[in-house]
Every structure is written in C-alpha cells, then in structure tokens.
Design brief:
92 residues, mainly alpha, elongated, Complex 1 LYR protein domain-containing protein, Complex1_LYR_LYRM4, ISC_assembly_LYR, Complex1_LYR_dom
Length: 92
C-alpha cells in the first residue's frame, strides 16, 4: 500500500512541476510523456521494478525542476494558443 501511495504522489508531483514549464510545447510534451509512461507501467507488480521506476521518476522530477528554472530565466512571449480569449473586439 505504501508503494502505491509513493507512486501516486510522485505522479502528482511530476504533473504539478510539468505545469510550471513556461514553454507551451515543452509543457504539453512533458505532461503527455508523464501520463503515457504511468499508463504503460500501471500493470507492473514486481517491487524491484517499481523501485527502479520510482528512481527514474525522481531523476525526471529533478530534470523538470531544472528546466523550469532555466525556462523562467529565458522566458519568451506566450504563443497564440496560450493567450486567453477576450470578449472585447477592440482588445488585441
């Protein structure tokens, strides 16, 4: 049970950290990759393999943390897809 809780908390941490990525394409890629990886490995029941995958997830979390920091140092203008639509036609 503790393993399940650890895996789910790591999953949530990865998703939260990936949401902080400033670049839309990197953010969407990271979110998609995290979700796909966890879905693909959801049926694993070998504790040694789970322990190994949790180690990989911790490494990836640190990597995303670094990318968030670097991304905020060199931020760019938001893409059109990221901008929130307004109802005022004069506001462009």
């Amino acid at each position: 049970m503790a393993t399940r809780r650890l895996v789910l908390s790591m999953y949530r941490e990865l998703l939260r950290e990936a949401e902080k990525l400033p670049t839309y394409n990197f953010r969407m890629y990271a979110l998609r990759k995290i979700k796909d990886s966890y879905r693909a490995n959801s049926k694993i029941s070998d504790f040694d393999k789970i322990k190994e995958l949790v180690g990989v997830a911790k490494y990836n979390l640190a990597l995303i943390n670094r990318q968030v920091i670097i991304g905020h140092l060199y931020s760019a203008e938001k893409l059109v897809i990221e901008k929130k639509p307004t109802l005022d036609p004069l506001e462009d």
